[in-house]
Amino acid sequence: MIMKSICSLAPVLGVLLLGAIIVFTLIMNFTYRIENGRVFYQKVNSLTWKVEKTEMTEAHAPSFKRMMSTYAKDKDQVYLDGRVIRACDPATFKVLDYTWKFSRDAHYVYYRHTRISDDPENFEILEKGASRDSKHRYRYHEIVETFEDPA
Question: For a FRET experiment, which of 9, 15, 69, 143 has its CA 20 to 30 Å from that of 119?
Answer without folding.
Answer: 69
